[in-house]
Amino acid sequence: MTLSAQPGNKSDRPLTGREKIYLVIFGTETPMGRLFDEILLVAILVSVSVVVLGSISALSNAYGQWFSSIEWFFTVIFTIEYGLRLYCSPNPFRYARSFFGVVDFVSIIPTYVAFFFFPSAEYLLIIRLLRILRIFRVLKLIRYLREANILGRSIYNSRRKILVFFFSILVLVTIYGALMYVIEGSEHGFSSIPKGMYWAIVTITTVGYGDIAPQTELGRMLAALVMLTGYAIIAVPTGIITSELVGEMQKDKNLRVCPNCDRLGHDNDAIYCKHCGSPMEQKSTG
Amino acid sequence: MTLSAQPGNKSDRPLTGREKIYLVIFGTETPMGRLFDEILLVAILVSVSVVVLGSISALSNAYGQWFSSIEWFFTVIFTIEYGLRLYCSPNPFRYARSFFGVVDFVSIIPTYVAFFFFPSAEYLLIIRLLRILRIFRVLKLIRYLREANILGRSIYNSRRKILVFFFSILVLVTIYGALMYVIEGSEHGFSSIPKGMYWAIVTITTVGYGDIAPQTELGRMLAALVMLTGYAIIAVPTGIITSELVGEMQKDKNLRVCPNCDRLGHDNDAIYCKHCGSPMEQKSTG
Amino acid sequence: MTLSAQPGNKSDRPLTGREKIYLVIFGTETPMGRLFDEILLVAILVSVSVVVLGSISALSNAYGQWFSSIEWFFTVIFTIEYGLRLYCSPNPFRYARSFFGVVDFVSIIPTYVAFFFFPSAEYLLIIRLLRILRIFRVLKLIRYLREANILGRSIYNSRRKILVFFFSILVLVTIYGALMYVIEGSEHGFSSIPKGMYWAIVTITTVGYGDIAPQTELGRMLAALVMLTGYAIIAVPTGIITSELVGEMQKDKNLRVCPNCDRLGHDNDAIYCKHCGSPMEQKSTG
Amino acid sequence: MTLSAQPGNKSDRPLTGREKIYLVIFGTETPMGRLFDEILLVAILVSVSVVVLGSISALSNAYGQWFSSIEWFFTVIFTIEYGLRLYCSPNPFRYARSFFGVVDFVSIIPTYVAFFFFPSAEYLLIIRLLRILRIFRVLKLIRYLREANILGRSIYNSRRKILVFFFSILVLVTIYGALMYVIEGSEHGFSSIPKGMYWAIVTITTVGYGDIAPQTELGRMLAALVMLTGYAIIAVPTGIITSELVGEMQKDKNLRVCPNCDRLGHDNDAIYCKHCGSPMEQKSTG
Fold this sequence. Notes:
The structure is a homotetramer.
Chain A: H1 17-25, H2 31-54, H3 57-88, H4 92-97, H5 99-106, H6 109-116, H7 124-129, H8 134-138, H9 145-157, H10 159-184, H11 193-204, H12 217-233, H13 235-253
Helix pairs in contact in A: 1-3, 2-3, 9-13, 10-11, 10-12
C-alpha cells in the first residue's frame, strides 16, 4: 500500500492476468502474495548463505560445483522475478529506478558478468550480497514493521544532531591524531597523521585493538585523556536516540481518538480536541 | 502463588502430610517454606562452586576425591528434592514438563550418566551448571522480585524493537565482513567471509580483541567507518531499553487514582488530589 | 550540619576554645572553617601525589629521601589533625567509629607501621592512598555537592535493579565461561572455568584485551553471541540510571511552592496543593 | 547577530566600504556574506587536508614541493583575511582577543615561524591544524546550528554532574591502579602506580588494548571487578546527558502558549487549545 499503488483492487471489473501477478508479487494482502514473499525470503537467505559459505576455501574446494549450481539456480529465479516485476508493474520505469528496483537488478548481474567476463573476480561477491538488502522489503509482510518504523523515525528525526555530533568527533580525532603523531612518532607505529587518526578512532570508540598503542609517558597521558573523552561522549548519541525514542513512543501511546474528527495524538489530559476544538470524553488510562 | 495453586490453603479442613510438604517445598509464605528455599539457595551455590572449582586442574588433582564426594552428596539431595516435588505436586506431570521441572531433572542426571556411562565426559559439566538457573526460582522469596519484574517487563516489551535492531546489525555485519574479506584477504587473517563477519562483530560491539585487525590503508578506512557506525548504533538498544524503563517506572508511579474525581497521575507522596483538592488515602508503597 | 551537630552555635553564651576548634575543623560556614578545608584538600592531594610518584622507581631512586621527608611531614600533620578532631568532637567515640573517622585513623598508621615493623612493605601504599577518600568530605564545602546528591540518590534508588542485573550477568558469565572451557579447552588458553568466566567478563563488558581469544570455529561463533549479548545488555544499566536521573531531575525542577504549606514538588498542571489541598496560583514556566 | 553587532544595518545612510566588507566577512545574511563563508569553509578544509596528507612520508617525498606551495598560498590568503577582519571590525582589539580572533592569528603564524626560525619543527603541525576549529564559526551559516545549540546546552547544563562523575572516576582509578601495582608488580608490566592507573583507565573505559593485562589469579579477579564497575558506571554519563536532552527537547516543544487561556504544553501540530478549545494560530517551526 505504501510502496506501490494496487491497480483495480477496489473496482468491480475482473482482474487481468497482469494485475493478478502484480497482486502476488508486489502485494502482501492476499494469501498468494504472502506465500510469494515467504518463498522469496527463504530464497534470498539461502542464496546469501551460499555466497558466504563459498568463501570458506575448505568448503569451496569440496563442494565448489554444488555452490556454482545453486548460484546459477537462484540467478535464473531472480532474473525471472525481475522480469515479472517489470512486466506487471503499472509504471515499469519508476520501479526500475526505485531503490529496490536497482538492488533487484544489480544482484542478478554478477553471476552473468563472472561467467562471461571475469571468471574469478572476487569483488563481485559483495554485489551478490546486496541481495540481503531485499530482505527488508520482504519483511514488510510481518508485524515487525511498526517497530522498525518507530526506530527508523527516531533515527531520521535525530539525523541532524547525529551529523553535528560526528562532525565534532572528526575535528577531535584530527587534533588527537596529529598530537599523537608528534608525540609518539614513527618508531612507535604512529607513522603519519592519518594513522594517528585511525588510532584516535579506535580509542575514542573504545574498540581498542592494541595494534597501535602509545609507549611514551606523555603519549599514555594523552591516551588516557582520549579514553575519558570517548567515555563521556559515548553518552551523546545515546542521549540523542533515547530522547527521540521516548518522544516517539509517547506519541505512539497517545492513541486517544477525537470523537468528532477521528484524529490521534491527544495528550491524556486533553479536554478538547487539539485539531477541531470539539470536546473529548474523559477516557480512563490503564 | 503465581507459579502454583496452593491446595487447601484457605479451606478449614486440616492439611494432609502431602499438602504440608507442598507448602514447604513450593510455597514461600510459611517460615518452613522460606527456610527450605534458603537452604536450597545455599545448596545450589555450593554445588555450582564445586563444579567451577573442580575445573581448575591444580585443585582437582589435590582435592579430586573431596569434590567427587560433595558432587554425589548434592546429587542425592537434589534427587530426593525432585522426588518430593513430583510426589506432593497436585499435578506432577505439569510440573515435570514445566521449565524448572526440566531444569531440576536435567541437573541431577549428569552425575549418574558420568558414573555409569562416560566417566570423563567434560561436556557434562555444563549441564550440571544449569542448576544455577534454579536460583532464579528461589529468588522469588526475596523482595528483589519487583525490581526484576520491571526489568523483565521492559525487556519483554521491547523484544520486537530489539529483534529488528539485531536483524539490521546482522545485515550490516554480513556486508562489512564480505567487504573486509575482499579488501584484506587471507594474508591478513580475513580468510573467509564468516571470519570477516566475526571481525565485524568484534569491532561493531567495540570489543576489539585485536587478534584480527586490518593492515591495509583501505581496510583501516573501512574499519574506522565500522567503528563509528558501531559507536552510533550502540545508542539504539540503550534508547529502546531506556524509553521502556522510563515508561514502566512512570506507570509504576502513576497508578494512584483520586477517589473523588477519579483522575490519575498523583505522586506517591500526594495527600490531596492535585486536580480537585479532595483528600486521598495514604497508600503504602513497597 | 548533616554529619555533626554544632554545639553552642545558636545559643548566646561565648564559645569555649574547644567549640571554636570544632567550628574550624568540622564546620564549613565560618571563613576559618573554609580555609581549613581548603588547606586540608591541598594537603591530601599532595600526600597522595607523593605516594603515587614514589612508586616510579626512577623518581624514588633520585628523590627517595625527599619523598620520605614529605611523607613524615604529612603523617605528623594528619596525626595532629586526628588528635584535634578527637579532642573537640562532642562525641569522640562516635567520630572514631564513623566512616571518615576510620579513614582518618587508618591513613596515618601505615607510615608508623612501616617505620617500626615492616620497612619495605609495599602493600601499605594502598592504605596510605585511602587518604584520597577524605577528599569527598572536604568537597562538601563546594557547590558541586547538590550535583553529587542527585547522582548519588539516583544510584541509590536503582541499587536493587542494578543488583538484580549484576546477578543475572553473573549467571550468564558462569554458563558462557563453562561453555568456552569445554569448547576451546586448555590448549587455547581456557584452562579452567574461572578462566573462561574471566574471558566472558572481558568480552561481555566489551573490554576485549585479546590475551585470551577463541580460536576454533565453534568458539568464535559462541564469542560472537556473547558479544551481541553484551551489546544488548550494556543498555540495561544505562536504562536504569537514565530513567532514575530523568525522574530525579524532574523532581528537582518542579520547584513550585505551595503558598499555604510551603512544600515543593508540585506538577506544573497542579491546581491544588497535593500536600494540604489549598489552591495554588497558576505560575508560568519558562 | 549573536557574535557581533552589525553597524549601520538598520539605519538609512549608505554603507561605507569598511561596513560593506564587515557585512561580507562577519555577516551571514547577505548573499556575498554567505558566499564568503562557503569559500572560507572549503579553504579551511583543503588547508587542513594538506597538513594531514603532508605527514604521510610517501606523499611528502613525492609531492613535497606542491604541499609547500599550497601551504604558502593558504597562509597568504588567511593573513589577508585576518588583516581585513582587523580593519573592518568596529572594535579590532576586542576581535583580536576573542576566541576565534586568537585561533585566526595562531593558525597563520606557524608557516612564517617554520620559514624564518625552525624549518623542520614537527610540532608546529598541530598549531596549523587549529584552523579546523574555525569551521565551527563558518558552520553558523547552516541550519545545523539549532541542533548544535541543543546539544551544547545539554552538555553545558550537565557540566557539574559530569565533573563530579569524573572526579569519582579519578579516585577509583587511583585506588585500582595502586592495587594492581601491588598485586601484579613490575614483572607483569605494572611497573609503577601511574602505569597501574593507565591500565585502570584503559579497562574502566572498556578500551582494553591488552598491552598491559593482569596475569595472576588475584589480578584477574580484581580486573573482573574493575570491568564490571566500568560497565555499571558507563551508564552514568549516558544518564546525565540523556536526561538533560530529554528536558531540552521537551522545552523546545512545549513553548506554545494558548492565546486564550495562556496555558503551555501544546504539541507543534495543535490547532486548538487542548485546555479551553479556542483556536491557536499556526506557528511555523524550523
